[in-house]
Amino acid sequence: MIKVLAVDDEEPFRRLLKKELTRKGFLLETASEGETALGMIEANTFDVVLLDILMPGMDGISLLKKINGTASPPRIIVLTGKATVETAVEAMKNGAYDYMTKPFKLDELELALKRAYEFKRLSIKSEALEQELVRHEASHELVGQSEPMLEIRRLIKKVAPSDSTVLITGESGTGKELVANSIWKNSKRSNALFTALNCATLSEQLIESELFGHEKGSFTTAYKTKYGIVEAADKGTLLLDEIGELPVELQPKLLRFMDSGEFRRVGGNKTHTADVRVIASTNRNLSEMVAGGKFREDLFYRLNVINLVVPP
Questions:
Q1: Cα 186 → chain centroid
Q2: Distance CA 204, CA 69 (A)
Q3: Regarding beta strands 166-169 and 277-282, do their DSSP bridges make them parallel or antiparallel, or are they unpaired?
Q4: Phi and psi torsions of 239, nearest 5°
Q5: Are 199 and 124 within one domain?
Q6: In the chain, how many domains are there?
Q7: Average pLDDT of the chain?
Q8: How confident is the model at residue 183, as a pLDDT?
Q9: Model confidence over 19-78: pLDDT tens digits?
Q10: Residues 248 and 300 in one domain
Q11: Which of 83, 184, 192, 244 is most exposed by smallest CB count within 10 Å?
């Protein structure tokens, strides 16, 4: 559902937007002036802001500039009843996505909102793709005609169409990542992205940043907002390789994400969501790690919905 904030000093107009856009399936909140709107944006996640230019106190252009200075700003559609070329140009120069003149047709507004949302979603995906290793196609396929390998192929075809979490276990070098790739290729998510993160190669802080992203200024070298792998993999598939190496301190956050699809970037207080199918792989005995207090039992059971054992 697209989450929209409408900022306008005219109460009847806000009430009309609330009624009509809610009926159209949008999740709408309203604010009557700039300071209130800015506080709401800093505390919550919005996809699109509908912003009136002429308001008492903080005007629309000033608020537009402040919104675009926040972490992960929403796309902004400027609305006004007194349109001039100058105000339109100024709004677009300061980062507005679109500009509409009152009165407008509801269908036109609905279309503009959906376009703005899609543009925001694709922008996040594009930035994340520059930061992460994303595989559109694998260059290798599973090979081998032994009975255990044929059984793995049969199991892949059986489990791939579901959205269930898969735990792939086996010795190092047995092709666990190829199995994960094959599950993705045969799944309903094959037209979306397949992304992998090796949990054994990064420190605890870096793993969390890679997985969930971070906000600008959250640590010394965080010079800009970074979108995490889960955002890159939205609607797609994420492989967590060497899941047994995931730091215990980070395991509750992964469990929360798997249960609800919700996460927070490092240094951020906004809750974000992503729809991701998780596949995990390991050469460790996670049952023994659970018994030894090195892996959370609840996370183990959440990962071990389907277990594929790759033969040596």
A1: 23
A2: 29
A3: parallel
A4: -100, 120
A5: no
A6: 2
A7: 87
A8: 94
A9: 999 999 999 999 999 999 999 988 888 999 999 988 888 888 899 999 988 767 899 999
A10: yes
A11: 83
The answer, yes or no, to whether residue 200 has pLDDT greater than 60, is: yes
Report DSSP letters for 46-82, one per residue: -SEEEEES--SSS-HHHHHHHHTTSSSPPEEEEEESS
Question: In terms of domains, do 171 and 112 share one?
Answer: no
179: pLDDT confidence band, cut at 50, 70 and 90? Answer: very high
Domain co-membership, 154 together with 99? no
Which residue range is the domain that position 184 belongs to?
Answer: 134-309
Q: Residues 211, 213, 217, 223: is their CA dihedral positive or negative?
A: positive
- What distance in Å separates the CA atoms of residue 120 and residue 114, rounded to the nearest whole number? 10
Task: Report how far residue 182's alpha carbon sits from residue 241's, in angstroms, rounded to the nearest whole number.
Answer: 15
Residue reference for tokens 């899941």? 243
Question: Could you tell me if 147 and 289 are in contact, meaning their C-beta atoms sit under 8 angstroms apart?
Answer: no
Same structural domain for residues 39 and 161? no
Residue 186: DSSP 8-state: T
Pick the closest to residue 69 from 226, 224, 264, 209 (CA basis).
Answer: 224
User: CB burial class (10 A; 0-12, 13-18, 19+) of residue 229?
Assistant: buried
If asked whether residues 86 and 139 sit together in one domain, one would say no
CA nearest neighbour of 204 among 259, 251, 262? 251
| Token couple for 239 | 């492989």
Q: Tell whether 177 and 289 lie within a shared domain.
A: yes
pTM over 0.90? The answer is no
pLDDT tens digits for range 132-160: 444 444 445 565 667 877 888 899 999 99
CATH of residue 93: 3.40.50.2300
The rounded distance, in Å, linking the Cα atoms of 169 and 165 is 13
Bond into 148 cis (ω within 30): no
